[in-house]
Amino acid sequence: MKLKYYLSGLFMTVSSSLFAASELPNIVLINADDLGYGDLSCYGATKLQTPNIDKLAEQGTRFTDAHSPSAVCSPSRYGLLTGNYPTRINLWGPTTGFSPLTIKTDQVNMASLLKKAGYSTAIIGKWHLGLGEGKTNYNETPVVPGPNDIGFDYSYVIPSANSVPPFIFMENGTVVGHDPKDPIKNGGKVWAKPLPGKGAGRIGGGKKAHELYDDFQIGNQFVALSTEWINAQNEKPYFLYLATSHIHHPFTPDPRFDGTSECGKYGDFTHELDWMVGEVVKAVEAAKEKNGRETLIIFTSDNGGMLNHEGQKAWEMGHKLNGELQGFKFGVWEGGHRVPMIVKWTGNVPAGRESHNLVSQIDFLATFAEIVGQELPEELDSVSQLKEIKGEVDKPIREDLIVLSNSSNHVSIRTKKWLYIPARDTGGFVQPWGQHAVGGVRVFPHTGQHNNDVVKGSYKKDAPKAQLYDLENDLSQTKNVINEFPEIAKQLHEKVEAHKAEIPKTKKIGWIADKGGKKK
Question: What span is annotated as the signal peptide, if there is one (predicted)?
C-alpha cells in the first residue's frame, strides 16, 4: 500500500512565487553538528551562554518541536538537502571519508532548486555525503561528482566529519594543498602525531594538505570564507549552506574560547559556534545595502547531542545536552532527533514567537520551493512550512513524521502527541558510561534518567517489546503507555510498516547499522 495513503499531505507541487524577483530573500542555512536541544541558553542551558543565537531567537521564531531527518549525521544531511527520508536510498549510518556521493546529480535538492531560481549558491563546512564514484580518490583533480555537481556554485568543505580521515579541505572538488608528488593514501603510516583530542591522527601521504588542516582554526576559517563569499555577492539572491563542524568531537576550539564556559570543552566549543553565528549574521547585515534584500536565516542542528567523553564530562558538570529530552545522538528517542531550530526573516517571520508545532528539516526544500516559485516532483516527503514559519497557522501542517535512528529495527513515527517505537531501547549506541559514545537504558544509573520499563539500567522481564509515549504529558519519556493505548499503537505500527515496505532492497549505506552502535 502506498505511503501516500498513510502520510497524507506530504506531497506537493509549487509553481508560482509569492514574491517578485526583486523581493526574493537571500537564504542562509546554518546547520550545526551534534548540537543538542539543551545546548543553547535560549533553550534552557545555564552552564554556557549563546547570546548571538539567542538574539536570532528574539528577532525570529524559536521552534520547540523541530526534528532532523535522522538521529545520525549523514542520513540527516541527505534528508535536509533532498527533502526525502534517507530510507528512500537505504541510508542509515555515517558515510566514510571514502564513500561515493549519495545524492544523484540529477536529483532535486536545495542547491539545484535555488540555482534554477537564479540564486548564487555555496556550501562551506562539513559535507559528509560522499564524493566521487566508487571509492573516493582524492588525488583526482577535481574529485567528481561532488557538491558542485548537484547545484553548488562554490564549495569549500571537509569531506567527512572532523573526527575521521582524510583531514583535508576541498575547494570546488580539489584538495587544498594537493601535491601530486605526495599523494593522499587511504591508510598507511601516520606522518605526524595526532593533535590533542584527535585519536585518529593523519592518514599517510598528502603532508602539505594535512598541514593546512588545523583543527583549532576551522571555526575561524569557515567564518572568514563565509563572510568573504557573502561580501562578494551583488544584486542576485544568494544561498549559503554553512555546515559547521562544531560541536562534533574532537572538541578543539580556538584557544581564546578555552575555559569560557562552566561545562568544559563541550561548552567552550559551543561558545565558539555562537561566535561563528554572530559573525555570519553581522556579515549578512553589513552586505544588505549592496545586495538590497532581506535574508531568511535558519539555524538548526543535524541531530541531537552526543554523550561522548566531553559530553559525559559536561553532564557531570551539570549540563544536560538535550535538556529534558530522553536519549542522545544515534537513537530514536526524542533527544536523538528533536533539535534546536530558529528562523529569522524580517518582515515575514514574527519576532519573539515560539512555535510548538511539529516540523521537520525535510520540509525546508518544499518551503524554499514555495518561496521562489519552483516546481517539485510530486513524490517527495517534503511539505512546505511557509505558513508555519510566517505564523499564519495554529495547527501543525504536518501531522505525521517518520523518525529514524541508526537502526532499521527502530523505524518509528511521531503523530500529533504520540511517539511510537516498534522495539525496545533507543536503536543507537548502547556502550556503558565512560566509553566514547554511550546511550540507551544502561546509562540511566549515571544520567539519573528513568523509565517505567527499566530498573537499574536494564529492562524488566515483563516489559513490552515496543514503546508508545504521550509527549504532550510526558516529554521526557518516563512512562511507556503502550499497554494503555493498544489501538493507537496498532494504527501507528501499520504506518511504520507501510514506510518500511517502501525501503529499497539494496545494500544499506553507512558504516554502522543494526549493531547497537557498533561497527559491522
Answer: 1-20
